[in-house]
Amino acid sequence: MTALQKFKEIENKITQYNEALGVIYWDLRTGAPRSGMERRSEVIGTLSSEMFKLSTSDELGKVLTELESEDIFATLSDMDQRLVKEARVEYDRSVKIPAEEYKKYVILTSNSENKWEECKGNNDFDGFKPYLEQIIEMQQKFIDYWGVKETRYDTLLDQYEPGMTVAMLDEIFEQLKQKLVPLAQKIAEHQYKPETSFLKNEFDIAAQKEFSLYILKQMGFKFDAGRLDESVHPFATGLNPGDVRITTRYLKDDVTSALFGTIHEGGHAMYEQNIMKELIGTSLCTGTSMGIHESQSRFWENIIGRSRQFWNCNYEKLQTLFPQFKDISVDTFFRGNNVVNPQLIRIEADELTYNLHIIIRYEIEKMIFNEGLKVEDLPKVWNEKYEQYLGVKPQTYSEGVLQDVHWAGGAFGYFPSYSLGNMYAAQILNTLEQEMPDFWNKVEQGQLHEIRDWLIERIYKYGKMRKPNELILNITKEPLNPNYLSQYLTKKYTEIYKLNN
Ligand code: ZN
């Protein structure tokens, strides 16, 4: 067996373990009985550590070194070269953490996510505190193992958005703040406010499901390669391109929450469903970064799903399913679904203030890892920042510092991906509008498949073959530029709030 064959065999086995774990996580979040969870955490621990052993094995290290030798590397295909480079990054990252510590960490985060759910329900920060402290302590150790980049937080950031740094983000977020804060103020002080009272009503859950599935179909979600289920916190999981599962949550008193959740996760899913088959069984068979992944979910959810053209196309269908709207015009419905409302909960935020929720989390995470902010002080800092940036103050932990699952799962450095996603999406839209001049017409005609196909050709099919900065440069001919997002938001909200009138 050649080194390349051996290498691919190991890679394939790792992705198989990963897929098995993916099914278990999906099962845990979509209704697995609570009593079995502790045992299930142990199963996760065992499978993860088997996978970990494989991905840190001397055997893998040996074949990697062999493939990296100049004479062999030069003979590899582009894909195999990229694969070797990616595997090297992951190998070095994993091999630095002792196996026992890794297993301990996986079990800890799995239990911690369950504990978080319970504590959030009971508004119990003290109950969750010891878990969070242990997770942060272990992450700090990992940073030491991996090596500190420019700052300690840079090391965490790089896992989710390769190439992104604190220095770059500080500047990008500063530019965003300078544009978005005055815009939000202008909207708050403006006399005209869209009507929203019609959104308060009761909405049949079965009809909501039907509408969600109808829209997924219009987008081009492949139902023979995916499914839609329910969970408390919507998510998408790509097991392999032929099996990509998403969830949503139906609320009886909110007609669009489940829909926009479905569209969002559907965007993630279509990325994973359309990765080229050649990458299956390799570590390149996934989205290239969390930021690019979020750019796709947000492109579909916000730019398309919350647009006037989308509702011009789909409002009649909604009215048929929900007769409550028969006397509400599509214009009223569109505006009512795009209200700017500074409030406490990130996942309920509008497109504009959402970015401020992220900037708050980014600043707090930097404080934890670069300045040693203590867990016991988190609620205080959290509340102060909410008051400062959004003018609102949480009254409970559940609507404040306990609202997100990310920290319970150890995903420090992840939050900036959401805003990066918004910025990438707006920049990609700008290119799309130039290359496809009838883009908005297509949205209005429900020809979303053609938009999906454009995204497949430029983004989806490559999986992790291209790095995020390469991909953006390749598609839009310039590096990440936050001005596209502020321009898009300014244009959109000037129309919705009639700011020029
Ligand atoms: Zn997402």
* Order of strands across the main sheet: 1-3-2
Cα radius of gyration in angstroms: 23 Å
Figure out the total of helices: 21
How many discrete domains?
2
What topology does this entry show?
Blueprint: H1 3-29, H2 37-55, H3 58-68, H4 70-73, H5 78-95, H6 99-122, H7 125-146, H8 152-160, H9 166-189, H10 205-219, E1 226-230, E2 236-240, E3 243-248, H11 257-273, H12 290-304, H13 308-321, H14 330-336, H15 354-371, H16 378-390, H17 416-435, H18 439-445, H19 448-458, H20 468-476, H21 483-496
Parallel strand pairs: 1-3
Antiparallel strand pairs: 2-3
Helix pairs in contact: 1-2, 1-3, 2-6, 3-5, 6-7, 7-8, 9-21, 10-11, 10-13, 11-12, 12-17, 13-14, 13-18, 15-16, 15-17, 17-21
The chain binds zinc ion (ZN).
In short:
With 501 residues, the chain is mainly alpha-helical. The chain is built from 21 helices and 3 strands.
Descriptive key words:
501 residues, mainly alpha, 21 helices, binds zinc ion
What does this structure look like?
The structure is a single chain. The protein is mostly helical. It folds into 2 domains: 3-147, no CATH class; 166-496, Neurolysin, domain 3. The protein is 63% helix and 3% strand. It has helices at residues 3-29, 37-55, 58-68, 70-73, 78-95, 99-122, 125-146, 152-160, 166-189, 205-219, 257-273, 290-304, 308-321, 330-336, 354-371, 378-390, 416-435, 439-445, 448-458, 468-476, 483-496; strands at 226-230, 236-240, 243-248. A 3-stranded mixed beta sheet has the order 1-3-2, with helices on both faces. A hairpin with a 2-residue loop joins strand 2 and strand 3 (243-248). Helix 9 runs parallel beside helix 21, helix 10 runs antiparallel to helix 13 and helix 15 (354-371) packs across helix 17 (416-435). It is globular. The chain starts with a helix and ends in a 5-residue tail after the last helix. 39% of the residues are buried. The structure holds zinc ion. Zinc ion binds at residues 264, 268, 294, 297.
